[in-house]
## 1
Amino acid sequence: MSHLSYARAMDSFQATIDADSRIEPRDAMPDGYRKTLIRQIAQHAHSEIIGMQPEGNWISRAPSLRRKAILMAKVQDEAGHGLYLYAAAETLGVDRADLLDMLHTGRQKYSSIFNYPTLTWADIGAIGWLVDGAAIVNQVPLCRCSYGPYARAMVRVCKEESFHQRQGFEILHTLSTGTPGQQAMAQDALDRWWWPSLMMFGPPDASSTHSEQSMAWGIKRHSNDELRQRFVDMTVPQADVLGLRVPDDGLVYDEVTGHYSFTQPDFTELYEVVKGNGPCNEKRLATRVKAHEDGAWVREAAAAYAAKQMERAA
Ligand code: FAQ
């Protein structure tokens, strides 16, 4: 592309962003915009499929057939979200096999939250309520992301996350209105999942390397701290309904602003988990790599079948 046509293409990109319209796969876009989207969408897709593990671990131990059926459907939804997201990333010119390879070799990240263990059944409630709750707060604005395929994928994902959040709340509601032992189990799950859930929103704004540029490009619509605040404001009243105590002595509701002030999570823990030093990082990655290797014959069979079909059609 000549200098002049490149400059025109970039003007057209900027005009689309300024008009708050959508960029589509065939539109010209700056390299940085493409790279940022590939990074974020891939990390998001990886999170969805790694995120199947902490809950999948409880499918065989769910306390009733009804709970088992619901949990299986939820975990299956997460796999589906991964597929929509890998498909959205592929519209940017990358191959999902390469993205998976980057996940498996630690060159691309996935969400810190999935490196914590699910110790009791109440953790399944806490994941649905808090983790899917945080995912909704983060992802609803992504439905307005400037990149069309990502924004459209988010619409369906958010609808499903909404069901997931309610099922988690309902599990905890059952436990928190149950026996003293069940109530204690629900409280313990909230105590352990509260801080990692706040970390899901990423580093504080002052340390967020990508936020400013991503917001200028309309990829992110709100900063990490804005979304973290929104999550706290939404979740604390729900904890009250459950009769559970959010484990933060610094939590105060401000009548004037209409927001809660709250204690920030320990961000050194977030950085450590992201570096690979969380309680389950090694296990999650090893399980994922094994699943990929065990599934090689399925990919090979599908490719052989497709080749045979093409040969016949020719
Ligand atoms: N974990 O400059 P920023 C789900 C990295 S929901 C790991 O602020 P950015 C549903 C970040 O990549 C979870 N890494 O970055 C579900 C960057 O690293 P890099 C997935 C983190 O991108 C529920 C560096 O730190 N959701 O799966 C984390 O502007 C239940 C600097 O940070 C999404 O991915 C973290 N928590 O903002 C599934 C949503 N935070 O690449 C199963 C889409 C930050 O420079 C069960 N993503 N980092 O080396 C986003 O909205 C953004 O990417 C943020 C980070 C907000 C996560």
## 2
Amino acid sequence: AKNAGKHRYACYQPHMTAEAMERLQLEQDLRQAITNNELELHYQPQICLNSGTLKGVEALVRWRHPEKGLIMPQQFIETAERLRIIDALGEWVLKTALAQTVRWHETSKERFTIAVNISPLHFEDEQLLTTVNQALEASGLPPEYLELEITETRILQTKAGQANATALRQMGVHVAVDDFGTGYSSLTLLQDLDIDTIKIDRSFIAPLADKPEAAILLGTIVGAAHAFGAKVIAEGVETLDQARILHGVGCDLVQGYYFCRPVPALELPATDQSLYPD
Ligand code: C2E
Ligand code: CA
Ligand code: CA
Ligand code: CA
């Protein structure tokens, strides 16, 4: 099958395979997913290693398809990018996550941040600043409680991406580099840009138990981040051992199945209890 190019809209053709037709159907469904109210957010706690308490949550989108059930983001984010509906999706995620966070802040004593993933495509868009501003104003959430996560650090090196990052930080919004250590990201990023948080990819966390060198590498990353005033979150923490090693090398926050899976808003653990048993 031919790949649909950037500006080519797929449409039905008689020679299409069943698989191609299913993909096309899914694209059509995705275009309507927002208006049909089929998207939902799950939230995963970010836990402070020193206090054991929840300091932030990351919003992770899911698509509740009427026939296919719950579809995970890896199955539709790329399609949303290709169809150029990622901005609308991002806007929905922002508004929903911010409104939810304000509700949490109203009912719990503790304030915590909300982390929202922004597609690199969206991050380069001028419109992003307006969208973020509007979402903040509509919800009433103070900007310092919002953290935007961006995976592709290449974007932070383009003119448009850099301008957006600077403007966001001037607004008081935090910027996090997601999947740190993979792809194009490197420590020089900390020097060149004002990054609030780095999120260390889980490929660095998994080897911790059986390779002592892995902890040394992590300690170096943490040290460099701290020297530049950035916080460090480790992702994909699945065991207590990993958490202890991370604590030992000075990592600030952890996120992972060991502590809590991504959950619907109503199932978020209380903010006044320790999620770190020791
Ligand atoms: P990510 O931003 O790196 O998010 C972390 C992913 O790791 C999530 O998968 C999360 O459920 C999973 N995870 C959390 N703890 C663990 C753990 O201990 N072990 C393992 N193996 N996995 C863990 P999820 O929810 O399927 O999201 C996948 C990716 O989809 C995200 O990766 C992010 O890049 C993208 N994504 C999710 N929500 C959004 C969104 O609202 N907008 C955009 N643009 N992308 C999103
Ligand atoms: Ca993320
Ligand atoms: Ca990540
Ligand atoms: Ca990822």
